[in-house]
Amino acid sequence: MAFITLDGKKLQKNFKYLDKLFAKKNIKWSVVSKILSGNKTFLLELLKLDIKQICDSRVTNLKSIKSINPDIETIYIKPPAKRAVPNVVRYADISLNTGIDTIKLLSEEAQKQDKTHKIIIMIDLGELREGVMRDDFIHFFQSVFELPNIEVIGIGTNLSCLYGVLPNQDKLIQLSLYSQLIEAKFNKKIPFVSGGSSVTIPLIFQKILPKGINHFRVGETLFLGTDVYHETLIKSMESDIFTLHSQIIELIEKPVVPTGEFGTNLEGDSFEFDESKLGEKSYRAIIDVGLLDVEQKHIFPTDENIEFVGASSDMLVIDLKNNPKNYKVGDLLEFKLNYMGILRIINSKYIDKKVINPIS
């Protein structure tokens, strides 16, 4: 059976690197754990670290986190669905919000649970995902401040996730100024200006992050060591915390070009082949992971001689050329993964999850 491993020591190294980086700038930061899909084996390893805040986009994941460490501060990082409001108040100390009707429901539920629910109000700075429009934000804050059992602890924004709109100095200065305007107009303290995510970290390296930005929400860079802004890797960080291991379940020398009358495959794709390769053969292997678990474009063989040639729901087919490493049925092949690959694989109930080099 295929399995994915998490290297605890490498995760710890990346965490310490980011924690030191943010501490130098007096920036508070939250770990975004949604890549772990609430997997308890991996959450237990993650929560060995000295994490002060943790974010997730699934209430069930926050519930799991609270069951492991009730004292950790949890953040629900998307506007809550109305039906989820009771559990958001129950398991999230903080939530990101953009709708006054939803915040009213949070207020009512917080009163029922005898809690004060904290919120960060998201402002749209051009990405057109979640966020209050800038023309409306003064009136929006005024309405929220009137609600009982709701404490506004921050203003934030999201960039890069939908259309790839990058954060820059100008946009983040705007966010900081909006915070100052709210504080001046309503005589309220807004502790967090949450303008940072993995894609914003390079602005720290370039020394152009506005001083007002004092809160980051980071997932991808922690788990993959990526400079998301430039689509490169950060030299001092580990990029292979996760590794997919998949077993060869068939290995046979076969023709390179299929034969017969062609239609479409299960995804509706049709294919054309180079007829000049008729008669050529190579060793083809089938591994025990398929489209049900992950798309092949999100995983990358550590053996650069391996090439993907096809996929179906439960199997991926790879070309081993003349099989120079003498692979055989039963051998495990290793694959690196990008963010979406990790997310899909961990979310698959058919893939085992294991920790190696656990944090002591």
Automatic annotation (TrEMBL):
<keyword id="KW-0663">Pyridoxal phosphate</keyword>
<protein>
    <submittedName>
        <fullName>Putative amino acid racemase</fullName>
    </submittedName>
</protein>
<feature type="domain" description="Alanine racemase N-terminal">
    <location>
        <begin position="7"/>
        <end position="225"/>
    </location>
</feature>
<dbReference type="GO" id="GO:0008784">
    <property type="term" value="F:alanine racemase activity"/>
</dbReference>
<dbReference type="Pfam" id="PF01168">
    <property type="entry name" value="Ala_racemase_N"/>
</dbReference>
<dbReference type="GO" id="GO:0005829">
    <property type="term" value="C:cytosol"/>
</dbReference>
<dbReference type="InterPro" id="IPR001608">
    <property type="entry name" value="Ala_racemase_N"/>
</dbReference>
<keyword id="KW-0413">Isomerase</keyword>
<dbReference type="InterPro" id="IPR029066">
    <property type="entry name" value="PLP-binding_barrel"/>
</dbReference>
<dbReference type="GO" id="GO:0030170">
    <property type="term" value="F:pyridoxal phosphate binding"/>
</dbReference>
<dbReference type="InterPro" id="IPR000821">
    <property type="entry name" value="Ala_racemase"/>
</dbReference>
